[in-house]
Design goal:
Elements (H helix, E strand, L loop, with lengths): L1 E6 L3 H4 L4 H8 L3 E5 L5 H7 L7 E5 L9 E5 L5 E4 L12 E5 L4 E6 L10 H19 L4 E6 L12 H4 L8 H12 L2 E3 H5 L8 E2 L11 E2 L2 E6 L8 E4 L11 E4 L1
Parallel strand pairs: 1-2, 7-8
Antiparallel strand pairs: 1-14, 2-4, 3-4, 5-6, 6-7, 8-12, 9-12, 10-11, 13-14
Helix pairs in contact: 4-6
Amino acid sequence: MKLITWNVNGIRAIVKKDFFNVLAELDADIICLQETKAQQEEVEKALEPLKTYKILSNSADKKGYSGTAILTKSAPENTIRDMGVAEHDSEGRILSVEYPDFHLINVYVPNSGSQLDRLDYRKGWDKDFLKYIKKKEETKPVIVCGDFNVAHKPIDLKNDKSNYNKTAGYTQLEIDGMDAFLNAGLVDIYRKFHPDKVAYTYWSYRFKARERNTGWRLDYFLISEVLTNKVKKVEILNEYYGSDHCPVLLDF
């Protein structure tokens, strides 16, 4: 089974690029998308050419903002939108599906803001999201994937010293949030397979960041420990364009 996670930075924008050819080439069983920036009917319309996938989505109340989607070749047993916590559930950031052997949770974690004005909110989000994951894990192993909006270690971003505690995605509070996920038994499977590899999943559109590979690793697969021996490979597919993020592959 092949899984892809990809922050597409606007589903209606990326489908005008080489998106469908890329998906055909990747031929994944399940594709988790973040930042669709579209309502459910708009997501379905944009993805209409995809005949082999069932399309599920979760939209923000605010139009053109946030949003998640899952494209799956086999219909899940169950689909759940949101966390079930009122203050977190208006932005379409979580889409969870249940299969016979695992829960798959697609997430677009809130950005703490250019002025770090959402940092306190982010702290609460991380805490509540971990509770949500662990509740799911009581019944089946979990695969959590998506844009976590944090670079966990210095290896996960180009300019760690100049960004530390100054830039959203690399404050100690956000790092502590990721630590909490891992300390609770989830495994950052990319880093387990590639402990010393410098690889990024996001590059700003400004300052020729991708050209210069001034990037961040913000997109993760976190999986239950029990699933780790089933993983064949996990790769960052930075050769694919169309968004300011690239896809990440989990093959198991």
